[in-house]
Design a protein that fits this description.
Elements: H1 6-14, E1 18-23, E2 30-35
Antiparallel strand pairs: 1-2
Length: 36
Amino acid sequence: MILSNHLLLQFLQFLGYNVIVYTNNNPGMIFVYFYK
C-alpha cells in the first residue's frame, strides 16, 4: 500500500491500528503496513 494521505495514517492510529511506515531508499515509495 502506498500512502499518499497523512490524515489516513492518523485515522488508522485513531482506530487502534498499529502502523508501520518505511521507505525503500526511494523518495517516491513509502510503504505502510497496518494491523490490529
